[in-house]
Amino acid sequence: MKPMTLPEVIPVFPLPGALLLPRSNLPLHVFEPRYLAMLDDVLKTPERLIGMIQPLSIPGREETTLTTIGCAGRITQFTETDDGRYMITLTGVSRYRVLSEVEGFTPYRRAEVSWDSFEQDTGPEEHDPSFDRPRFLELLERYFTSKGLNTDWETLQEAGDELLVNSLSMLLEFAPEDKQALLEAPSLLTRRETLITLIEFALHGGNSEDLIQ
Description:
By secondary structure, this protein is α+β, with helices and mostly antiparallel strands. The protein is built from six helices and eight strands. The protein has a five-stranded mixed barrel with strand order 1-3-6-7-8. A two-stranded antiparallel ribbon has the order 4-5. A hairpin with an 8-residue loop joins strand 4 and strand 5. The termini are far apart.
């Protein structure tokens, strides 16, 4: 299969707390007119890419600025509702670095981006040979119990390293800055370590002095 050509300019979707990672799926419900216009435009392109990114509020400025690093996803599923909204799924392709925002006449924001230093995102699935899965799942069970959450433990146990770590990074409720740290982790190992730290931090009521070593 021919690798996708990644464009220099992409539409960006600033969404607080939303995390997309390479080779992972993010469902989105799109209803704002500017993003409906974005989807109409994106679906006409061969890449069908949207750049998910965290917005940052600046005191005294009405428009948010953008974090430096986001992740672009390809629209792999979409349906239109009777009232004109979209239910879509983005499949993560690669992280990117914002070089500058592009001025123009579109109602949505666009950015000039660089894909350099994220080559591993378009490569094969990552593995984590040092992953202590039994200890991790035990920690996760304590976290789910503390939050009153249920899950399909059999599916979690059968999931590959990358699918397990990335899915939990995307689904669990963490602050936007913590989601950004998970996104920027340079490898699956460092993302897994960051995820464990965040779970332990949450289990101990946000008291960093009580983190399990």
